[in-house]
Amino acid sequence: MTPAADGPAAAAPATTDVADRATAAFRSGYDEQPAGRWAAPGRVNLIGEHTDYNDGFVLPFALPLRTVVAASPRPDEHWTVRSEIADQPVDFGTAEVDTPGRVTGWGGYVAGVVWALREAGYAVPGARLAIASDVPLGSGLSSSAALEAAVLTALVDLAGLDLPTGRRPRLAQRAENAYVGAPTGIMDQSAVIRCRAGHALFLDCRDESVEHIPFDLDAAGLAILVIDSRAPHRHADGEYASRRAACERAAALLGVPALRDVPAADLDDALGRLPDDETRRRVRHVVTENQRVLDTVALLRAGRVPEIGPLLTASHASMRDDFEITVPEVDTAVEAALAAGALGARMTGGGFGGCVLALVETDHSEAVAAAVTTAYAERGFPTPTTLTALPAPGTTRLPWLP
Ligand code: GLA
User: Is 188 a catalytic site residue?
Assistant: First the structure.
C-alpha cells in the first residue's frame, strides 16, 4: 500500500520494516536471536459481506500490510509474548490457556491460538514471541486474524506439526470464537492464510474450497483505493452478533441449513414466507450478496474488471438499506468516491465503521481520494486515510538473514 492522499497514516511508520521491528523487539526483550519470523497480512474483502457465517461466498484479497511474529521455542509449557504496542510482556502457562477468556486484550489472541491447537490434540511447544505490525488496529482490515495466523504458523513450524494449510483457518477462527469470544465467520482467517499475490480468494464458506481468481488491477489500468472511514466502531460487537442471530433464525424459519441454501431465483418466494420486514431485508441482503459474489467472479474470470464496479456499489446499498450496518462516515466516503468518478465503491468488513474500498481508474485515483477528503471536511468528520491496495500473499515464513 502506498499513501495516495494527505492525512494521518493508518499504518505504523513505514520508515522501519515491520520484520526488522519484530526482530529488534525479540532481541531486546529476550537477549537472543529468534529461531524464525512469520508474517501474516491484513485483508480487504472485495465483495461478499456477512455471507461467510451463512455458509455463502466471499472474495477477499490480502494487503501488503503485515503482522510479523519473531519466535523461539522454550522447553516448558509456557508462553511469553512481547508487542511493540505494549510496555510489558504477556506471560501465561497451561492454566491460563486452558480457561478460555482468561488472557484478555491482544494477548488473548495468542493464548487462543495455543488453546485451539491443544484442543485439537496438538502438542504445542512453549515459546517466546515478539510481535510488530503495520496492520492498523480497529480499521476492519483483520488485524486480529493477522495476529492469529502469524502466531499459529509460527507454533506449527516450531513444533513441526503436520497441519495442512487448508485446515489452519478453522483453528484460528476457533481461537477467536471460543477463546476471545467474538462470533466471527471464517473469511478473515481464510484470507490472511490462503490468499495469493495478484489474486482474490474465491472461498466457498461451506466446504472451504477455494479458487484463486487473477485480479490484475495494473493491467486493467485500475486501482483499489482503501479509505479508512475513521468512524469509531459503535456497538459493533453486539450488532454483529445480532445480525448473525437474525440470519440463523431466518434460515430456521425457511427450513434450510443456512441462508446460502436460498437461491437468488427463489428469493421472492422465501421473502413471502417470512414474518416481518426487518427479517425480509436481512435475508434479501444475504441472498443478493451471494449472487453478487458469483457475478463478480464471473466478470473477473472473463477479464471484465471495470464491470464489477456496479456490483460493488449495489453491495453497499444492500448493506446500508437492508442489512443496516453502515454509518454516516462510510456512506459519505462511498457517495463522494462515486461522485468523483469511481467505478464502484462499498464498505468492506463487518461494518459500523472500518474501511471503504473504491474501484478507480488509476489516473483518477488522486482526484477520488481528494473528493472524499473534501466531503469529510464539509461534514466535520476527521480526515480519512486513503491508501492504494494491490493483492499480496498470505501468511509466510520469512527468510532468515542473521
Ligand atoms: C468480520 C468477520 C468476518 C465476516 C465480516 C463480514 O470481518 O470477522 O467473519 O463476517 O465481518 O463479512
Answer: yes
- 400, part of any domain: no
Average pLDDT, the chain: 94
**Centre of ligand 1 from the C-alpha of residue 188, in Å:** 7
User: Do the domain assignments include residue 365?
Assistant: yes
- The bridge status of strand 78-83 relative to strand 126-133 is parallel
Question: pLDDT by residue (tens digit) across 91-118?
Answer: 999 999 999 999 999 999 999 999 999 9
Asked, for residue 254, whether it belongs to a domain, the answer is: yes
Domain around 167: 16-215
Q: Is the CB of 349 under 6 A from ligand 1?
A: yes
Burial of 261-291, coded b for 16+ CB within 10 Å and e otherwise, reads: bbeeeebeebbeebeeeebbbbbbbbbbbbb
- Does the C-beta of 320 come closer than 6 Å to ligand 1? no
Domain CATH code at residue 193: 3.30.230.10
Which atom of ligand 1 has the smallest separation from the CA of 240? 11
Could you read off the pLDDT of 215-263 as tens digits, one per residue?
A: 999 999 999 999 999 997 766 789 999 999 999 999 999 999 999 999 9
pTM of the prediction? 0.94
Q: Does residue 169 line the site of ligand 1, with CB under 6 A?
A: no
Number of domains in the chain: 2
Whole-number Å distance between alpha carbons of 385 and 331: 15
Ligand 1, pocket-test mutation among 188, 259, 282, 355, most atoms within 8 A of CB: 188
In-domain check, residue 2: no
